[in-house]
Amino acid sequence: LIIATGTSEATALTLDSSQNATFAGDVSVTGANLNFLASDAAQIKAKESMIFTIDSDNNQTSRVFQFKEGSGNTLMIIEEAGNVGIGTTSPSTKLHVSSSVYANWTTTVQNTLNSNSHSVYTGYNNGSTNTRYGVYIQGAGTTANDYHLLINSQFAVLGNGNVGIGTTSPI
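^ that's the sequence the OP posted. Answer follows.
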């Protein structure tokens, strides 16, 4: 199946014998949903950059881009204002992560550069032992040169266990 536009020789849509579709030019869907259904995994690929525009005519203020799972629950949302929500459909900050799962960290920020790298975890709640952490910082370094926590150069926790208040070099 080949569909051409008007009197032009250019092919707008080609559907081969394996039912693979090839589009030339822009594809617009107005007043409907564009669904990708596949028996295994549907993919959208680009040879270079891929740009998703929300509210391209800039006449709305509450457009969103959502990632949903099969039953329709939102996994991640990106608002037109730039806020990103994971586990929430109404992010109140640039990155808003929410979870109600026991025995799980809500967020992890990890540097895997080398064996002396650090990790920061937030929001742990183990329902079976009632162990809870607000922020947990894990560092591999164990010397006075390894900062595990440094707040405005006023509070420091070093890799050797020394804690300094008002100094970054506690004895």
